[in-house]
Write a structure and sequence with these properties.
The protein is α+β, with helices and mostly antiparallel strands and about 220 residues long. Helix content is about 20%, strand content about 30%. It has 2 domains: about 90 residues, no CATH class; about 120 residues, no CATH class. The protein is globular and about 60 Å long. The model has no long low-confidence stretch (mean pLDDT about 95). Bound molecules: zinc ion. The site of zinc ion has 7 residues, from β9.
Amino acid sequence: MTTTFATSGCSLHGHPEVTVTFLEPPLIPDGERLILGHVESAVARGGRFRAGETLAIGGHLVRFCERGDGTLGVEEPEPAPKERWIEAVDRTVREVMLQKFVNESVGLDLAFPPPRTSLLVCRCAQDADAVVLTRLDAGSASKGLSGWSLACADTHEHEAPFVVPLLALSALKPDLVPFLALPPQTVAHVSSGPARVVYRGVARAPLEGSFLARRNERAARKT
Ligand SMILES: [Zn+2]
């Protein structure tokens, strides 16, 4: 069952309205506003979007497409081995909103990784339950790096890292994606148990009732 939402203020500015499509029932209330609100304010300021153009939403890229109904649609890439764009925004909205929720939970500013970048993954982290995400810097679009690296939680000498696109991480380890907008000098300890965020060497306890506090309560009950 698909759900669509559209802008209503773009035609006032001589611009086609923009429609976003969710292929699954939307999980996050008003999540569509992440993209529609961005488009509406850009168009109100004189911005123009055309089919085929991309737009950065957080660290994600979406792309406009023609729809048969006179509005512009929005596509996102599927995290498949071969890149394929589909007219949907489910993953983009979910991942960017969860990243906002994690940062709000620990009171840290958003630092989205540059779009289309990668992270370094130690081989030993591939099958580990407990992993450590470390962000050295804000990343570099020209170098294709997000600033993040991923290792297992053991204290051994980690196996040699390889490069994994953030898009592939969405498919391989979706539970890690919500942590990727934490700023440089953050270390996130993530496992099936409670997650721990350390910023500049100081642990940041999640605010009471926050997204991360609730995630950790659920995880603590399971373990
Ligand atoms: Zn390791």
